[in-house]
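Forwarding the complex inputs:
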Amino acid sequence: MSKVISSVEDAVSEIHDGATLIAGGFGLCGIPEKLILALRESGVKNLTVVSNNCGVDDWGLGLLLKTKQIKKMIASYVGENKLFEQQYLNGELEVELVPQGTLAERLRAGGAGIPAFYTATGVGTDIARGKEHKVFNGRTYIMEKGITGDFAFVKAWKADPYGNLIYRKTARNFNPVAARAGKTTIAEVEQLVGIGELDPDRIHTPGVYVRYVFEGKNYEKRIEKLTTVKA
Amino acid sequence: MSKVISSVEDAVSEIHDGATLIAGGFGLCGIPEKLILALRESGVKNLTVVSNNCGVDDWGLGLLLKTKQIKKMIASYVGENKLFEQQYLNGELEVELVPQGTLAERLRAGGAGIPAFYTATGVGTDIARGKEHKVFNGRTYIMEKGITGDFAFVKAWKADPYGNLIYRKTARNFNPVAARAGKTTIAEVEQLVGIGELDPDRIHTPGVYVRYVFEGKNYEKRIEKLTTVKA
Amino acid sequence: MAGKRHFILERALKEIKDGMNVNLGIGMPTLIADRIPEDVHVMLQSENGLLGIGAYPKEGEADPDLINAGKETVTVVPGASYFDSAESFAMIRGGHIDLAILGGMEVSEEGDLANWMIPGKMIKGMGGAMDLVQGAGRTIVIMDHVNKHGESKVKKRCSLPLTGQGVVDCLITDLAVFQFKDDEMRLVEIQPGATLHEVQNKTEADFLIDDGLTSYQ
Amino acid sequence: MAGKRHFILERALKEIKDGMNVNLGIGMPTLIADRIPEDVHVMLQSENGLLGIGAYPKEGEADPDLINAGKETVTVVPGASYFDSAESFAMIRGGHIDLAILGGMEVSEEGDLANWMIPGKMIKGMGGAMDLVQGAGRTIVIMDHVNKHGESKVKKRCSLPLTGQGVVDCLITDLAVFQFKDDEMRLVEIQPGATLHEVQNKTEADFLIDDGLTSYQ
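Prediction (whole assembly, four chains):
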């Protein structure tokens, strides 16, 4: 039951115009860089993209802004991207801003079969407008809905052919929730190992959530803000 | 900031009559056996215990039935325990049966600050009685509430002094959700290692959820149903 | 009795396809595992936190930290993973398990299932059954067609407390196979040795007979 | 300006106690990390999935897979752990982070905070701020008392879109420290170099003066 594909193009070819795509990553850390490049080449349009950020102008999801493939963006922070602002102000791009924790939880809920949950986040702010309010133990909460996507792009460190995934450091971030919330989840990884080579106690995303696995070469892994101290 | 305690009695001494206690474990696998023994010795009464099962007559949470320390049990399956039945039929023990997935999710929600969520589990059954029903995308769901406890007992394999925990195989089960849902979480472990010795990518329960860590000796780890094939 | 069970298990086995993720309930469904042919690669899920259940361990090699949902000691197959209970039921309730095969006490013509409680008897609890029937991609119930007293367990309405309402996709008994779809219960197969007449006699539920009914006699 | 910031950071530092789990917001709050004395052991949380932030890496040793919520390359301390975003916010929203220190644009006398959006300017998004102010055990806001035009940022009512309503427990500015409790805003300290008169002049909000006010002049 190998899920290994030898070209990202094959996997991306299933994605249709108007699809909802969930992408892992935080800033440029742990982003599915090969899949995004392949999606750009595919030319698919009118995408709804759910991701914490939208890359930068010339890397990550920002590339899909340049080619105007994104119709709507659901994100928590999009401040690193001039194209984004332009297209939003032009009315070319719809935007739904979601608090980061609510976004993570909505994706987790979507993947876990939970259609909605209550949270205190956003109560009394613009985010709460039009949402159901409910009081539990004297505190007010709003209802937020689960998110699922037609496709999810995930970047992991290691995988086996069944699609079990292990992430590295803070490159984990939204990838596990994206993997669960995608109807078809495509994982790109730095290292593909044989079945049985991953310690079952160390697996972060069980293969059941993953449809395709692709081993990428020469990851760029761009750093957004290099901060160092003198050695 | 070491959380290591050298006696379980010390930690258990904080538990008061009438407290709500969440305990990890599935059957007799991954149960906090030392903490349960210490709690029995403490003689604390009128406990509400939240755990998937209630041990067997002479081991695990069953020990606290014998001493009549449990007032109410919230569990998904209690079929292995005669004392349980007796006390329930006598009216000495209150029982709330919760579907296993709903129990796991209620504990996760409680620990994650989510007061309630919707699930399809139990719709159209006795479990749904008196609960709020809501339709999402044409399907009916019921509202279930988060659970938190005054205390949580957790059993892990390895820990460091900050309380970072790693579980082993299926002994993980309810332990991570118990750890999050306890206001005061006490972990007992088989092996305490130095700070920095656990790979940060391998930690299952970050130490932020754990108040005390105790290293136990000579774990019994009883097997409930030994099933083997001829060698 | 052994013969009856054999036909049920063999028929259920046909529903398990290469590449599936499957949860086999406690009791009779667990017995299906041993019958899965080597060239059909499936991952068996255990709701206590394991995907990739293997065979029972050899004598002397049982690990108390490694059990299935029936609390039996097991082993794992290559590619297995362990996870916590919340993750396990995220998997189940989020629709990621393709197939659940469960035992039953009663199934109704509406596809309702009762399999967890007999009023007046000792309470045991539903465990993960209510989650599985709602969450799995398909739910198959396997059970004897009649009880010890010869009474039909395939009912117009369940008399026992429900595990789930309208959740059964397929019912496999020692006499027949029924499918539930679009609010209709349909007899699709008759088991070896049984007859349509016998199925009709021993079934309280009203059902349609499929045009393509196999083993029609 | 550097001096003002120094007093704010030093005062905020006093709120950080040994053994705490703390989230420091992007910008000025991040600068507090370097000032924490070695004998005060705290775990710094980064909402992108890290508990136990360390110093910036040495030149040439930055790891693209290891960043903080401000997207800066960092290192970790012994005892650190990595986790996913859902776990990170379970931690934050479940009340497991003792203290969050955030920057502010406006704080109202009701303890409302606005710090994420200026209408008419480029939209950036709230990131994790709305979650932190609701979830953390205590929320401390640090900011300049007045804006570039000399106008008070400590308002009767926030004019900017809110990050949270009634969420501020403590406000530390270059002029004063206020506490919010039981629906009351209370001046509890005056910063070095400032006077009560100045605080009163530069504060639009109505506030009580604490009996034990320190640095009263």
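Chain D has one domain: 2-214.
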